[in-house]
Structure formats: structure tokens, C-alpha cells
Amino acid sequence: MKKLKFGLATQILIGLILGVVVGAIFFGNPGVETYLKPIGDFFLRLIKMIVIPIVVSSLILGVAGAGDGKKVGKLGFRTILYFEIITTFAIILGLVLANFVQPGAGVDFGHTEKQDISQYVETEKEQSGKSIADTFLHIVPTNFFQSLAEGDLLAIIFFTVLFALGVSAIGERGKPVLAFFEGVSHAMFHVVNVVMKAAPFGVFALIGVTVSKFGLESLISLGKLVGLVYFALALFLIVVFGIIGKMIGVNIFRFLAYMKDEMLLAFSTSSSETVLPRVMDKMERIGCPKGIVSFVIPIGYTFNLDGSVLYQAIAALFLAQVYGIDLTIVQQLTLILVLMVTSKGMAAVPGTSFVVLLATLGTIGVPAEGLAFIAGVDRIMDMARTVVNLTGNALAAVVMSKWEGQYDPEKGHRVMTGQDVPEPTQLSS
Description:
Blueprint: H1 8-25, H2 30-66, H3 69-101, H4 118-128, H5 132-138, H6 144-150, H7 153-169, H8 175-195, H9 199-214, H10 218-221, H11 223-248, H12 252-258, H13 260-269, H14 276-285, H15 290-303, H16 306-322, H17 329-345, H18 352-361, H19 371-374, H20 378-403, H21 409-416
Helix pairs in contact: 1-9, 1-13, 2-7, 2-8, 2-9, 2-15, 3-11, 3-15, 3-16, 3-17, 4-18, 11-16, 11-20, 13-20, 14-15, 14-20, 15-20, 16-17, 16-18, 16-20, 17-18
């Protein structure tokens, strides 16, 4: 009798469904969080453990392979420019939809449970004291090893790029260094295969805790907001990314099908970090150069949060509508500019979306206290915006490869449709 074998995506989906069922059955029971949360946290810690070594080793190999500081500088400028354009589109789409649908009209917070957001308030106070100059200075690490310990991705990338350029500049003497990091890269991708075996259990635990804590009923009072956020994110995912895909010769539906495992895992865990190694590997498989993939995608995790800024735009207008505040065109333009700046400056801060909203609402005269009422459904919306963030960064690697003249659409099409399956040099699916 042939043994039934489930793929990773199927296992994760089963874990997701079981987590929802268990959470719904034991809604309000604190024991669920007591027993399941450690399992979910254990999986997330496993992922965070391997992300930095993979980013550092891949980036060193990619940048040193390019061997030209001018090329890296040009790629960096184009990448940031692209990120700014796309995130601005996301913010504008969020504002247009929120103005049209009016999700906050008629909402009464009197029947909505208020959540504690004091931790985000303290973080926002710390961050608001920093100037734009402080934000840019923070990119340059005073102690690289401290940045590694803190997981400060921007500072790590800055040092790693400079180090890689130095290795490239010394020629033959740098080859042992490259050989070492090539070994590290292959070893870490093997570790990813081992860690991903725990993914279904991590997903089961994380979803179970979320549903048991907030319940499915929490969607009812704020259902219009949640529905609009999901619709807006789906629209951005299919239409905006679809147009970009058309321009670079990528069918967005094939691309999404190719990324389905990673999207499901990111949705279930509300974490882009869980799929960073797999996304980098998959982009290389469809023909994106290692140097571009290892540079663009990690930076995108800080600068290209399309789903997050779209949600923040909708949430800001939602709260303004709840409090009966009619924002003028000038105030909404101010909101666009503020979100563009704060979403970058606070990208490495825990609870980024809430912290950014706290920093933003004050500039347009909306009481920040309203965030305490939507905190209960934030995790549900976070799951969807994580998928958009992930897809946007993966697609950005293809865009930059095309922009640099190093992407072959025909090869990408063959791999995404299963006609051409390259040997997995780093990560087996």
C-alpha cells in the first residue's frame, strides 16, 4: 500500500484549520495561550535564528560577485526609488478606498472591547524624539556585532555591503573569505529545510492562540474595516502587482501560484521573516541574479512595506470618520507624506504598524486612543498585509533584475509553470 504524503503547503493548511477549530472551541480559555504560545514562539525563534546568517552570507556573495561599487550604488538608488513609488501608490489607494467606502461611518466603540496599547505608546514616544538625521545615522552601526544581536537589518546590510566591496577589491586574497561564506550559505539553507518541518506545528499554535484570545466575534463590530482592508490588499495584490508584472513579462497569477507555500506560511504566522530564505531561493530559481536578490529583498523588508502602509492609510481615515473628523485634502496629503517618512524610520521597531499610526494620527488631529479599540482585530488584518509585503518584495527582485537587464522572462515562465525545474542548489521544496 502506497504511503500518503502531504506537501509542506498542505501540512501548513491543516495546521491552520486545526488551529482555528481549537481556538474557537476554547475561546476565552487562558489555558490555550499557556500551552500553545510557547510552541508558536519556539518556531518563530528558530526562524529568527537563521535569518541573519543567511542575509549576511548571501549579501556578501552577491555584492562581491558584482565586484563594482558603482553598480551596487546604482542598484541601491534604483531599488529605493522603486520602493518609494510603490509605497506611495499603496498609501493613495488606501486613502481613496477609505474616502469612498467610509468604513468608520456609524461605528460605535461603546460595544467594542478596548485593548491595552501602552507598550506602543512608549515606543512611539521614544521614536518621535528622533529626527530624520538620527534615523539615517542609525543605519551606520557603531558596533556591528551589537547590530547582529539586536537584529538591526539596515545596519547589518550597510556594514555587509561595505565588507563585501572590500573583499572584492582585494582580489585573490578575498577568495578564501568568499569560499567560507559560500559554505555558510549552503549550510544555512540546509538548516532551513530542517526548521521548516516545524512550520505546521508553529502555525497551529499561533492561529490557535489568536482565535482563542480574540474570537471570531471580534470581527463583527469592526467587520467593515476588516473587510475593506482585505479587499484593498487583494486589489493591490492583483491589479497593481499585475500591472507591474505585465511590464516585466511576469503573469501575476502564475507568480502567486509559484509563491503559494510562502504566502500561506506568512499569512498563518503574520511574519515575513519565516519565509525570507525560501523567497530568496525561489527568486534565484526563476532567473534573478544572486547579487540582486540578496540586496533587494532584505532591504525591502525595511523599506517596502506595501501592505502595511495601505492598512495604515485606511486605519487613519477610519478613526477620523469614527470621531467625526472631516479631513481636508491638505491634511490627507500631509498624511501621505508622514506615512512615507515614518514607515521607513520605524521599520525595525516592534509593532511597527501601530507605532506608525500613533505617530501619524497626531499630525492630522485624530485621537490616538481609538487604536485601543481596533487592536483586537489587528492580528487578523496583519495576516493579510504580511502577504502583500512578502509578495511586493519578491516581485521587486524581479523588477530590479529586469531593470538591470539580467532577467530572462522566458526562463521565469518555464520555472513558474513547471516546464523547467532547476536543480535545488540551496533549498529543496
